[in-house]
Design a protein that fits this description.
Layout (H helix, E strand, L loop, with lengths): L6 H8 L33 H4 L12 H8 L3 H13 L3 H23 L15 H16 L8 H15 L14 E8 L14 H9 L3 E4 L2 E10 L3 H5 L2 H11 L7 E7 L4 E5 L1 E3 L1 E6 L5 E5 L13 E3 L4 H5 L7 E5 L2 E3 L12 E3 L9 E3 L6 H15 L6 E7 L14 H21 L16 H6 L7
Parallel strand pairs: 1-3, 1-4, 4-14, 5-10
Antiparallel strand pairs: 2-3, 5-14, 6-9, 7-8, 11-12, 11-13
Helix pairs in contact: 1-7, 3-6, 4-5, 4-6, 5-6, 5-7, 5-8, 6-7, 8-13, 10-12
Length: 463
């Protein structure tokens, strides 16, 4: 997928130049080329995320990431990829190998999640973690690959980007044509907070993306096709415009534009939140590369966008609130926060309210916090408004916290899987309601809670 934006050059360098001090394990499934010559340099630097491939649970046992890949039956995809890399003799062929491997991984994960690959693995088909860890195993192999031909830093980074975009569904998000087909584009996220015991964490929004991609939902006014992508929990990818690349491609296809977009991420325990406001501020929480970033949300190169501090949802939240009751309550969160001194943003204690931002106020947080979930809503809808697409509904849905299996030494259990299934099912219900339900409930802030408490309850919020 070709994407605009000068920021990609900075990201391409980041994809390669990340020196690490810890040793790197060999890549399983690596073939040998030209006799005894190894195809991979195990001393080559890998990312912080890729280093976690060696992490085990505190109780011991196998490395969690590779074990989840094995349990889902994705290890053959990894091994086939490394074998093909070793056999690749030209840069042109390498690009094709990266492209087909990324797209194949995403498509296999979607097919498995939606029940079309019962032959693959023993772990719950809806689990999003095998995709995440398989992607890291394959990106690590591509980073450490020693080809038979000269490969510049920039060229290798372009291969990594090609693979990554495919493995996140960004190259598989075109809608079918047809005048009567309704269209919806959603996005989820990778697992995050993976350090230490968090290495087994999943993300229900990533699972929902796999559950929804390509699905046709029957609504009262006709079928709606859903396309989904999955975003990294990495600030630099957002700097490089990955959100604009995903949603901008759909917006610019005027014959197959979505009528509704919804960014999805994991939010607060025990509830769904339809967020009213997204704010133009990053709170400084570390991402999956352990990099903290604090300050204003930067503009996206080469895309039209307004210079605003807050963006309000245009999702039909009344219809969503009126959806049939399921496992979790659904709330309309109207909280947001501003800096007390607009001339010195980032200083003082943020002021949180539930009315509406005033002209000149500087965002400290949207209702969904000031982490990448808030920024996914802000960027996608900043682009939507910048392109003058007021007729497209857009906003953010925070899912309940999924939690982890009860046994700290277990990778999954029945309750964990049931919670994930309930969250994905309720997202389908909420989308169906947004596309044609009838509103009956009035909108109101979360009962019994303050604006500040609502904001502070979201992961990654630091005020």
């Amino acid at each position: 997928m070709k994407t605009p934006g000068r920021r990609w050059s900075a990201l391409l360098s980041l994809l390669i130049v990340l020196p690490m001090a810890l040793p790197v394990l060999a890549v399983p499934g690596v073939a040998q080329a030209e006799g005894a010559r190894s195809c991979f340099d195990e001393s080559a630097a890998v990312t912080v995320e890729e280093k976690r491939l060696t992490a085990t649970l505190p109780s011991g046992g196998p490395a969690v990431g590779p074990e989840l890949v094995r349990l889902a039956g994705f290890d053959k995809l990894v091994s086939d990829f490394t074998t093909r890399l070793c056999a690749t003799k030209t840069a042109l062929r390498a690009g094709k190998v990266a492209e087909t491997a990324g797209e194949g991984l995403w498509r296999t994960a979607v097919d498995r999640a939606q029940g079309r690959r019962p032959d693959l693995g023993s772990i719950d088909k809806a689990d999003d973690r095998p995709l995440y860890w398989a992607r890291l195993r394959m990106s690590k192999a591509l980073r450490q690959w020693t080809p038979r031909f000269p490969l510049s830093v920039t060229a290798r980074a372009e291969l990594l980007k090609t693979f990554d975009f495919g493995a996140r569904g960004l190259d598989d998000s075109r809608f079918s044509s047809g005048p009567k087909l309704r269209r919806v584009l959603v996005s989820g996220f990778d697992p995050f907070t993976l350090n230490g015991a968090g290495v087994r964490i999943a993300n229900p929004s990533g699972a929902a993306a796999l559950h929804l991609d390509g699905k046709v939902i029957q609504t009262p006014t006709g079928p709606a096709q859903v396309q989904a992508v999955s975003f990294p929990v990495v600030w630099s990818y957002f700097d490089a415009g990955i959100v604009e690349a995903a949603y901008g491609r759909a917006f610019r296809d005027r014959f197959r534009r979505p009528e509704l977009i919804m960014t999805i991420s994991q939010g607060r325990p025990g509830r769904f939140d339809i967020e009213r406001w997204a704010g133009a501020w990053r709170g400084g929480s570390p991402d999956n590369l352990d990099e903290p970033v604090r300050g204003p949300v930067p503009p996206a190169d080469d895309w039209p966008q307004p210079d605003v501090q807050f963006i309000e949802t245009t999702l039909p939240y009344e219809k969503m609130l009126a959806a049939p009751a399921e496992a979790y309550q659904v709330l309309y969160n109207q909280a947001f926060c501003v800096w007390p001194d607009s001339g010195n943003p980032g200083t003082g204690t943020a002021v949180c309210r539930t009315d509406a931002p005033k002209p000149g106020e500087i965002a400290a947080s949207g209702g969904g916090g000031n982490y990448l979930s808030n920024e996914s809503m802000f960027r996608s809808n900043r682009l939507r408004t910048g392109l003058g697409l007021a007729g497209i509904a857009g906003g953010h849905l925070h899912t309940p916290v999924l939690g982890t299996p009860a046994d700290p030494s277990a990778l999954t259990d029945a309750d964990f899987e049931a919670r994930r299934a309930a969250i994905s099912s309720q997202i389908v219900t909420l989308l169906t309601a947004a596309l044609g339900g009838t509103a009956t409930k009035p909108a109101s802030p979360a009962p019994g809670s303050s604006a500040r408490a609502d904001v502070l309850a979201t992961p990654g919020t630091t005020l």
